[in-house]
Known about the structure:
This protein is 10% helix and 59% strand. By secondary structure, it is mainly beta.
Amino acid sequence: MRIKILRECVFIFSVLILMLHFTGAPAQEEIFFLGEETGVGARAMSMGGAFLGVADDYSAVYWNPSGLGQLRRMEMNIGFSHNVVSNDATFLDEKFNSEISFTRLNSIGFVFPVPTYQGSLVFAAGYNKIRDFDNTLEIDGFNKDYAAYQDLVIPTYYDQGWTTTINDSLYQEESLIEEGTMNQFVLSGAVEIQQNFFLGASINFISGKDDYGVKLTETDVYNIYDKPFDSQTGVIADLDNWVYNQGLVSDFSATSFKLGALYHVNKATRIGATVVFPTQYTIKESWSENFDETYDWGKEDPFTDSGEYEYKIQEPYSLGVGGSFKLLNIMLAASLEFKDWSQAKFKTEPPIFGVTKGDVNVRIKQELKSVTTMHLGAEVYVPLIKGRVRAGYFNNPSPYKYTEIKPDKDYLTAGASIMLDKQVMVDVGLTHGSWEQQTYDPLTNTSSVEDKGFNKITGTLSIRF
C-alpha cells in the first residue's frame, strides 16, 4: 500500500524523466541523424556511392534521376540487403559485445523508356530502402555510485517524510535494441533535352519506423538493502530486484523532390549535379514505460504508462556534384554532397517540457554546421570472367561543431558483378563502417565507450529487355 501511495505522488515526476530521457536527443537536433544511409543498388553502393556522375541503371532514381535518360531498354530491378551491426562497449571498466542482424528488401523498380524520334524520354517507378535504424547494446556491472531505482520510482522526500536509502551498490544489467528503416516510393522521369545533356526529377514519398527499446535490471546481489520499511523513521531499504522497460516508436513521413542534370562531355567523361529541396518530416512518436519491483518481503503490482505526440521538422537543401571518367576497362568516379545543417529547423513545438520551437532552433544554429560528404569509387571490367569488380570509399562527417557528440564515420566498399546472359546482371556489394563514440546513459548515470561496426551485404538482380 505504501508503494502505491508513493507512485501516485511521483506519477508526473517519473513521466517527465522518461520524456527527457527519450526526447532530449531524438526530439531535438539528434532526430536528423538517426541511422545509416548507405544508398540504393549493389553496384552503386560498392563504388562508394560515387554514382552521381554515372547513374546508368535503375538506382539513378536515388543518386541522379537525370541518368535515367541514358537507358534505352526497359529494366526490372530487385535487390536485398543483409545488415550486421556490432557494438563493443566498455562499461564500468569491463568490455561487452553485442550483435544483431537483419535481412530486408533493398529495392524493387521498373524503368520504362518511351520511344522517341530523337533524344530520350524515360520514366521509372519503384521502392527503395534508404536508411537503417539498427543499433544494439548489452552491458552489466556492479555500480557502486548510483541506483536508477531511487530517481525513477521513489522521490527523495514525501509529505510524510518517507525516504529511501537505495541509492547505489546495485548490480545493473542493461540491454538496448533499435531497429527500423526509412523507405521511399519513387516516381522519376528524365529527358535528353539536347544531345548528351539530360535533365531528370524524382518525387519521393517517404515513410519509415524506428523502434527503440531498452531494459534495465537492478539487483541487490549482496543483500545490502535488507531493512524492511520502518514506520518510525520512514526509511525504505529492502529492494531485492527492479526491472524497468522503456519504449519509443517513431513513425516518419515526408515528400521530397530531387532534380538532376547529367552531361556527356565526351565518350569517356560525364559530369552531373543534383539538388534536393528542403524536406519537411512529420514525426509521430509513441512512448511507454513499465517496471516491476520485488522486495525482500514480496512483489509489488507492476506499473505502466504510455503516451504519444507529433511534431514536424525540416531538413535543409542538399546540393551534389560529381563526375566519372572511363579509360579502357577502368572507370573512376567521384562526387560531393553539401548540406548546411545549421539551417535545419523545427516547424512545430518540440515535445519537450519547458522547451519551445525557438529554443531548439537557436540551439541548432549554435551547435550544427555545414558538411560535405565525399564519395570515391572505381570499376574495372575483367574480360576473362565477363564481369566487373569494384571498390570505393565514402565518409559521413559529423554535423556537430563538437564532434565528440556525434563522430565522423568512414566506410569502405567493395563488390563485383557478372552477366548471366546479355539481359541479366547480378551485382553483389559489401559496405563496411566502424567508429568509436562515447555516450552518456541517464539510466545508469554512467558513460560508455562504444566501438561500433556496421556491415551490409547487398545483392541486386537486373533484367533488361
